[in-house]
Specification:
By secondary structure, the protein is an alpha+beta fold. It is 49% helix and 14% strand. Helix 1 crosses helix 2, helix 4 (80-96) crosses helix 10 (290-319) and helix 12 runs antiparallel to helix 15. The mean pLDDT is 96. Bound molecules: flavin-adenine dinucleotide. Flavin-adenine dinucleotide is lined by residues 149-152, 155, 158, 162, 189-192, 257, 443, 446-447, 450-451, 453-454, 456-457.
């Protein structure tokens, strides 16, 4: 099957009936439910972009197995050109939402691609698992499926997890093996896009102590979201059924986060990629380089998001005539620096890419690691800058209905600003509000802080893998030279 259209994506969501709960309600059709349908339509738009005649060649490539045009984020990059093509494709998707759809399907497509290319890694656990991961990659590429994933055990007791032991009664674990597969019971956080996805990838978080009692918690697999026993428990939706004017982001880009419950879920053997090997589980993301390919997608998203916030900030100060103040320049310049740093990290990651041991052109990791460590600080700061530059205009932004009410004339008269009439001004500042003040905006900030892991431990990981020895040697040589002088 070639790259899907939006209609095909929505049709499949409609036909499948995963168990999705929002509050006390079971959602039977996400494509028509007001809490999720507009988010689904935005993802559908991404799929439609693959068929836009102006974009088709940049969004798709020829499948090596079927000869059909399939989504370019599935490509196994063998050259720098492949990597840059993938990057351009991902930027098209990221720019559509100003980076607000963090979980566009490319995020996991690149991860499964890397896992499949490194299938021999999975064979160390069981030779069948290598074929499983290869077949799975081909399956999702040829059917253009949309994935969510869940990696982290719930926050039941972090004192336990700090010592590498998940909470035994809560964390998802293998409770049984049968001739059909493994049975999983327990919970995992926090599958973003879960209710809008076709498949759930359950991959290892990287913090298990390699000991016999952690083996049941060590696994990787992927299953359809409508697998019996699987439940998605959603947070409150931030699509409040308001107009695009009122909630320009929440009304479009609700990608939803859900806790996943496994109620004795059968994972068939052909979908198991790793089992009962904490050592391999801990190493999987790094050794397969899946994490580097995911970082590549994330930095592209960061570029689009930094562009978007900078654009909004510039329009804000322009609209109220605040472009001449030096402290405004300083704040806008900070956003420019953030954007250019993200672009530089992306470019450096691509320019220094090399073929890895799996024959995949892999971006150079350090610049991407820098980006993923620094963006969780940059993004909240850019949101703060938007608040500082916008000030009361974030509140002097009545809903659209006010314009067509008895107070409409007052608003038209008193809400004008230097460069915009009242309606244009309110529209712009409602966008700034949806980034900097609304529940949708608050979730975006939390997302940027945490979605790729706890920033404290991301920094520890960078400390751990960064090659510090040559630098220490250079200083040692300097110290020795000083003694000679
Ligand atoms: C909006 C959003 C979307 C997300 N989407 C997904 C998704 O799609 N898939 C997915 O798998 N995950 C997702 N996550 C989860 C994300 O991976 C986790 O939030 C992140 O790994 C941190 O884990 P935690 O939330 O359990 O916090 P914790 O790890 O419990 O951290 C909470 C606090 O305790 C401290 N702490 C806890 N343990 C330690 C320790 N051992 N050492 C030092 N400090 C410690 C932390 O520094 C932090 O300050 C998402 C998170 C958010 C907020």
């Amino acid at each position: 099957m070639p790259a899907r259209t939006g209609a095909e994506y929505l049709q499949r969501l409609k036909e499948r009936k995963p168990e999705i709960w929002l509050g006390g309600e079971r959602i039977r059709d996400v494509t028509s439910h007001p809490a999720l349908s507009r988010g689904a339509r935005s993802i559908a738009h991404l799929y439609d972009m693959q068929h836009d005649p102006a974009l088709r060649d940049e969004m798709t490539y020829i499948s090596p197995t079927s000869g059909e045009r399939v989504g370019l984020s599935f490509i196994t990059p063998r050259s720098l050109e492949d990597l840059q093509r993938r990057s351009r494709m991902m930027l098209h998707w990221a720019r559509y939402s100003g980076g607000m759809l963090g979980r566009s399907p490319d995020y996991l497509n690149v991860s499964i691609m890397a896992s499949a290319a490194a299938a021999d890694f999975y064979a160390q656990n069981d030779p069948r698992f290598a074929d499983n991961v290869r077949n799975y990659y081909t399956y999702i590429r040829e059917n253009d499926l949309c994935l969510t994933h869940t990696l982290v055990n719930p926050q039941a007791n972090r004192a336990l997890t700090a010592s590498g032991h998940p909470s035994a009664e809560i964390a998802a674990r293998i409770v049984k093996e049968t001739d059909k597969g493994i049975i999983i019971r327990g919970a995992r956080i926090l599958a973003t896009l879960g209710p809008l996805s076709d498949e759930l990838a359950v991959f290892p978080s990287t913090v298990l102590r390699a000991a016999a009692d952690t083996a049941p918690f060590a696994f990787a697999f992927a299953i359809p979201c409508d697998t019996p026993g699987l439940k998605f428990i959603c947070r409150e939706s931030f699509d409040y059924e308001r107009s695009h004017f009122d909630h320009p982001l929440g009304s479009r880009f609700e990608e939803m986060d859900a806790v996943v419950i496994f109620n004795d879920v059968l994972v068939p053997w052909e979908r198991v990629f790793l089992k009962a090997d904490p050592f391999l589980c801990n190493a999987a993301y790094a050794i397969t380089n899946a994490v580097v390919h995911m970082m590549h997608q994330v930095v592209v998203k960061n570029v689009a998001k930094a562009e978007f916030l900078l654009g909004v900030a510039c329009l804000v100060v322009d609209s109220i005539g605040a472009t001449e103040f030096p402290h405004v320049h300083e704040k806008i310049a900070e956003c420019i620096v953030n954007l250019e740093l993200m672009k530089a990290c992306l470019r450096a990651g691509e320019a220094d890419a090399t073929l890895d041991r799996w024959g995949v052109m892999c971006p150079h990791r350090p610049p991407l690691d820098v980006a993923r460590n620094v963006f969780p600080k940059m993004y909240p700061r850019m949101v703060e800058i938007l608040q500082l530059l916008s000030s009361s205009s974030l509140m002097a932004a009545p809903p659209q209905s006010a314009f067509d009410s008895p107070i409409g004339e007052d608003i038209e008269q008193y809400f004008v600003v230097a460069k915009l009439d009242a309606r244009e001004r309110v529209k712009l500042f409602r966008l700034a509000w949806d980034i900097a003040c609304s529940a949708f905006g608050g979730r975006q900030t939390l997302y940027e802080r945490f979605f790729f892991g706890d920033p404290v431990r991301l920094a520890s990981a960078l400390y751990g893998i960064y090659d510090k020895e040559p630098l220490m040697d250079r200083v040692r040589q300097f110290l020795a030279r000083e003694e000679e002088d």
